[in-house]
Each structure stands twice: as C-alpha cells, then as structure tokens.
Amino acid sequence: MERRAVVIKGIVALEKKGVKPAVDDPGNSLDAEALSLLADLESAAPKRAASPGAQLAAFFHERDVIDRALAIGRIRLAQAYADRVQAMLDAGAGNDWRELLRQTAIVVAQLQELNRRRRDLRATLSAGAGVPILPCDGFRLLGVGEPSSDRGADEANRYLEAAVAAGIITKRELDI
Q1: Contacts of the segment 122-129: beta carbons below 8 A, 24+ positions apart
Q2: Pick from 39, 84, 93, 37: which is nearest to 65 by CA?
C-alpha cells in the first residue's frame, strides 16, 4: 500500500501541473504485471518515462497494476482460507461439525415438542376459565414447530429442514 500512495502522489503532482497522460502501451497485460508484482514485491520499482505525459500514464498504469495485484491477492487469500477449512473438514472436523448439527437438530425438535406440551397443558388448565397465570409462561423459545401459526418457529423449522436435506438427520429421528 505504501507504493500505491507514492504513485497517487505522483499522479496528483503531475495533474496539478496540468499534465495529461500520454497514451499507455496497450500491449501491457495488467494481470501479468500484477502477478509479477505479487511474485516479487522488490522488483516493483517503477520504470519512469521521459516526458511528463508518459510519466503520468506510467503512474496510472502502475496504480492499476497495484490495484489488480491487491484484487488477485484478496482472491488468493480467500481461496487459501477455503482450502484450509476444507483440509480441516477432510481431516475429521467435518464429522465433528455434522455431529454438532445433528445434536442441535435433536435439541430444537425436543424444545418444540416441549413447547407443544406446555401449550396443551396450559389449554387444559385454563379449561374455558381464562388464561391461568403460570410461572415462566409466555416465552416462545423456538415456537411449537407450526410455522403457519407460529412466527418464532420459522428459523428453527428452516434449520431442521436444512439438516434433513443435508442428510445430517432423518425426519424419523426428529419425530419426538
């Protein structure tokens, strides 16, 4: 980034003098130069042209090369991260992750079942005499698993559907 700042200062200094960039060499490959820059940062010394217009064009080109190198570097970093995660998953972390997802699905389904049982018992206790005042009543806690009537269950139900679709757990295992 330091080199880019130097290039930008050069561009600004020349533009303040009214210099217009000379036509850049269209044969230059931005990607090739960016890859070269990434391969050997020390060889990134600029090649200065004689005329101010050529120098300004060279600054613009160098800035573009640096920007492209940064973009390629970000892509490489993301790929390296994805490769590292995949290697960890291949080395066994994937099984651990799937087991945690499976256990989460079981707990979500159990909580929804408990919520249905609490709802049914509350209805039995009220038996037409109004709503009883019960300790800890009124908490949604992932709903009761009926998305059409229970907005709180939507996320939990999507999770359970995704776990089944991914083969982490079966619908039969979720029947509590």
Answers
A1: none
A2: 37
Q: How far is CA 138 from CA 30, 64, 84, 117, in A?
A: 62, 60, 45, 14
Q: Phi and psi at residue 108, in whole multiples of 5°?
A: -60, -45
Is this prediction's pTM over 0.90? no
Residue 58 CB neighbour total at 10 angstroms: 21
Q: Where are the alpha helices (DSSP H) in 89-153?
A: 94-126
pLDDT tens track for 54-101: 888 888 988 999 999 999 999 999 999 999 998 998 888 888 999 999
Angle between helices 30-39 and 52-88 (to 10 degrees): 60
